[in-house]
Amino acid sequence: MSSRTKSFQKRFLPAVMAAGAAGSLAAPTLAQDDMQMLEEVIVTGVRSAQETAVNVKRDSDSIVDAISAEDIGKLPDVTITDSLQRISGVQVRRNAGEGGSLNIRGLGQVSTTLNGESYLGANSITTVQPDYSDIPSQLFSGTQVIKSQTAANHPGGISGVVNLETYRPLDSGFDDGWTLSGAAQVGRGKETGETDPSVNFLANWRTDTVGFLVSFAHQTSNLANTYSGMNGDAGWTGFASEGAGAQYSWVSADTQLGGMGDRVTADGVDVNDNGVVGDTFWAYQGHSAFNRASERERDGLNAAFQADLGNGFELVAEAFYTKMEDYDRQMGVAFSDKWNRWGWAYPSISTPKGVEMSGGELHTVQEFTGNGMRLKSYSDVGVTEAESQNFNLELNYDNGGAFTGSARLVSGSAEQEQLNSYMDIDLANGSQWGVDCQLYPAGTAGEQGDCAEGRLQTNPNGYQGWPVLTVNYQGDNPHWSGWDNNANLNRDGQPQAGIASRSLQSYVDDVNSYSLGAFASENNFLREGDVDVVRFDGSYEIARGMLDSVDFGVRYSQRSVDNFEFDLLSPVGGCDVKWKATDVVLNGGGIEGACTYGEGGEYYTAGVPTPISGLDPIQVSDFGSATGIPPVWTVNPEYMDDVEGVHNQLYPGTRRAINPGRSYGVDLDEMSTYIKANFSRGIMSGNVGVRVVETDLTVDQNQVGSPQPYGAANEFLGQVSTERSYSDVLPSLNLRFDLTDEWVLRAAATKTMAPLDLAQWGAGLAPNYAIDGEASSDTYQQFIVIGGNSDGNPELDPWRADNYDLSLEYYLGPASALSAGLFYIDVESFIESGSVQMALPDQDGVVRREVEVSTSVQGSGGELKGLELSAKLAFGDFLYDSVLEDFGADVNYTYSPSESGNQDLNGGDLPFQDNSEHVFNLVGWYESGPFQARVAYNYRSERVAGYNQTWGNGALWQEATGYVDLSASYDINDAVNVFFNASNITDEKEQYYLEFEDQFAWQYEYEARYSLGVRATF
């Protein structure tokens, strides 16, 4: 990748920093007001926290919802996303059971700010959608979700802005002198059974005019994340038909697979025996069940200095740091036909859908019975390290006169690196795809057996046939069966001469039946991002007529991102090899001039025979709620935690090699100015303004050349740089009507803009390949193209939308409020995930087939509209001397229908991706004396996870989810508090399906988690 040095960083940034050090202007008190960061006190207790959130909403000059910490260093959840999910309109996606990414009102184009200005998070370097899974919640005093923006807001969110607030030394909740607060807790998962410690600490010192603060949080967690369903993602699906040429291997004989012989006709085979030949069935390349667990360690640090310099000047300097290490380990079993027959699995239970597909009526499949050639165990680790630093220097001026002002300098950097490693571990002896005897250099360890001279058995103790297994997806959980079947039948289900009958179960039980079939590291990345912002804001109080004041400002920002995606290539006989596999022969793959390794006109094999008995074997039996699977031997994924180390240990000289089609660089420079008039007359008040944004976009893309052998990425031919500019004029209007002391009516109209995910501008074409194991194929044992990704287009437009809001609020007590709101978002242009059929070359450069390529396409626009209802109730506000006086509730509901312009297979409209039509939250709480408790229920209705999934047809859906969490605490005295938290106490699962609810795709299972801790403040 190119290294781009910014003139801003070389010239302007040092100058401004020097000026800041000398005490000149550097940041916005005014900007905080514009971001609705109204004065909040540090409060204790559930009721007081709710009262603070109600006051923020009531006093805001736009439509805002808020959450507040109950005490110093305390929000009731692990990540800040967990807390945000309880705000109306916010929809959250969980990662291993913890809150990760979110959207507002069904759109993920959400801007994130830290204390009112740009925040660069390590999990969102290349994306717009926030992902706060690396940020401990204890670092924050509160958070606002701004749904109707003003001209002064930082641009970048279509549906809203999330403003994260940290503590500052002169906050009114801190007494003069020292304030010390800390907490320690231990957590435990119901399934993982690990004891996970977490601590957080805050120290603050202040006088009337100066103070400094340091807060720190450390969390460790081991999280169950079990998987079962199709092998791979939805792109690994296809359709199998009954017509002539259908790829069902057992149609020529009466076999144990249900007696197919009498269903064979001249036109094909009536697989489902319904009297019609030509039906089409959804087909999967494989089925799998994995024990998955994520081990995470988070660190967060916030440091701040604040001083009243006199004469109206205030100086604030802040540093915010996060770091996370995440080891995502999985091990389990997979059954497939190695990318050969789509019809390898017979649809033993299927349902007609009345939709035509591939020339026949489409049937969903609830049970697959197949004789795939490959049963394997699997071990995989994904290691992610994420780190971010964000710095803020600001000088605020307010001397009590008509003019107030601020200047601010923000600089942030973030890095995220992910390394993956996996092992395919074969139970088959390899004869099924012609690799039972492979050629190796003299001296290679292994057994010759019946192989010819110079060849070794790749798995001498593996099964020798095509075993039959059944996977049933009916009911609540997948069920596997057939382990007692003979594993040594031929492809037509008949006994093989000279090969003894032996059950598949007996092979699975024997660790000596397992041998390493493939070892690789791919889809790795290193992402680095920087953002620098300088802004000046002013406000002048006019108080003439209905005009109260005018706010104005200028802002310049530079954002730079490099995305380097790479594979690990290992030198085998002088050739660079990604897939160290027993079916990778070093013959050049038909590519002219490619590196080869062999002798006497024959070629050696990349993957050497390796019994797993010498590779830290482990037997796994816990597959979550998937049933019928016996204990399976595999390699402990912790063996690969040091990804580059273990690859260099087994293959010395392994190195990183760029994947040019997925690597890119983007510079996004913005210059914006705004003016905003604040006005009031009678019961009406509000603001009207406009922000003008000039954007310069530079995209560095890589040109991709010919395919390379042995799994290596396509040839890197050079870099192409595209420069373009665009302008946006973003008007805004916010109106407030104080109908009575309790009733407030609000209306807003704004125009918004957000950049794309940077891969949608920068990424290129990246094909995917696999070995052709079909013996009758012209490309047998060659790498053939099976799909790909082509996401980047620098000419795509950013997201743009017109937003309209109307809300009515009723404040019936200090901590109680009711609100109802209508919203309408008219999206002018949007980007959606899809797939297209493309003719791509195999690795020898010859085009033989069309495959499905995932891509980003520009939609023509769409509408998102809905209703938000909210009730924050402290019953003591209006039920005096009642048994309910100490109880309260925080309830909200969001109705958000949408139309994306896409259609399902029946011609019905599909909603925006990742948007749930119905979301509601129910929180009940109790607080009396030293004891307080709460229980929370969060519900999301089904959502579209992807369009055009199978050969350009069918949507992927996630089913509705509901999570129950609870917490309780007891104040031992004024300084010490003990607490208990529980999350996902109902063991909720996330299930996915393709188009129809009975076409099960996969499920993730998260665990219930419990923690116990103590908190003290002095």
TrEMBL record:
<dbReference type="Pfam" id="PF07715">
    <property type="entry name" value="Plug"/>
</dbReference>
<feature type="domain" description="TonB-dependent receptor plug">
    <location>
        <begin position="57"/>
        <end position="161"/>
    </location>
</feature>
<dbReference type="InterPro" id="IPR012910">
    <property type="entry name" value="Plug_dom"/>
</dbReference>
<dbReference type="InterPro" id="IPR037066">
    <property type="entry name" value="Plug_dom_sf"/>
</dbReference>
<dbReference type="InterPro" id="IPR000531">
    <property type="entry name" value="Beta-barrel_TonB"/>
</dbReference>
<keyword id="KW-0732">Signal</keyword>
<dbReference type="InterPro" id="IPR036942">
    <property type="entry name" value="Beta-barrel_TonB_sf"/>
</dbReference>
<feature type="domain" description="TonB-dependent receptor-like beta-barrel">
    <location>
        <begin position="474"/>
        <end position="985"/>
    </location>
</feature>
<dbReference type="InterPro" id="IPR010104">
    <property type="entry name" value="TonB_rcpt_bac"/>
</dbReference>
<keyword id="KW-0998">Cell outer membrane</keyword>
<feature type="signal peptide">
    <location>
        <begin position="1"/>
        <end position="26"/>
    </location>
</feature>
<keyword id="KW-0675">Receptor</keyword>
<dbReference type="Pfam" id="PF00593">
    <property type="entry name" value="TonB_dep_Rec_b-barrel"/>
</dbReference>
<keyword id="KW-0472">Membrane</keyword>
<comment type="similarity">
    <text>Belongs to the TonB-dependent receptor family.</text>
</comment>
<keyword id="KW-0798">TonB box</keyword>
<dbReference type="GO" id="GO:0009279">
    <property type="term" value="C:cell outer membrane"/>
</dbReference>
<protein>
    <submittedName>
        <fullName>TonB-dependent receptor</fullName>
    </submittedName>
</protein>
